[in-house]
Amino acid sequence: AQKVTQAQTEISVVEKEDVTLDCVYETRDTTYYLFWYKQPPSGELVFLIRRNSFDEQNEISGRYSWNFQKSTSSFNFTITASQVVDSAVYFCALSEPDSGAGSYQLTFGKGTKLSVIP
Amino acid sequence: GAGVSQSPSNKVTEKGKDVELRCDPISGHTALYWYRQSLGQGLEFLIYFQGNSAPDKSGLPSDRFSAERTGGSVSTLTIQRTQQEDSAVYLCASSSGRTIYNEQFFGPGTRLTVL
Questions:
Q1: Where are the beta strands (DSSP E) in chain B?
Q2: Considering only CB atoms, which chain A residues are within 8 Å of B31?
């Protein structure tokens, strides 16, 4: 079973529409961190947000917002009023304390490719 | 530089040859990671360095893969006797500390093509 599941492989929206990218994770740890990264066509992964397992407050940053729900093991990402520049592959990732020799390596989902059509 | 840099950006090699991929982390970052991104497998962890030590090599797919880090800075990932299934983008990331919350900053990657 995948530890991080991004069920949506590809999404297309028209500019200015809102879009939500889903992320479901699996862990036995009580302390863990969740991340979202953006990978634009240029290829470089860009950090967007970090959320710890004890903080379930939703977060908003400009047009971006994140909804973390431990009860459903989900950490969804919403882009409001999407723009063409939002077109990218978005990855959800999990960091666990027992990931191996204290490496805190990131376990990534398969990614969701978002295309925003003008 | 301000970010993580990797070289070369692209590498084409013939099956059976050895390749070396280089990563320059952000200055002062003690943790360094190598990941591989391929179409079939997504983003996979390969190896983790804390300083010059590699306490977690659990992601290396075979003994053809090795990595080292010197001076707590530059790291080299070596793939011996390359195979076509090694074709992927190899990403390096660094972070400022050995904690669960430190975000990892990624380099642009090296695209490896094995013919």
A1: 5-7, 10-13, 19-24, 31-38, 42-50, 53-56, 65-69, 75-79, 88-95, 105-106, 110-114
A2: 104
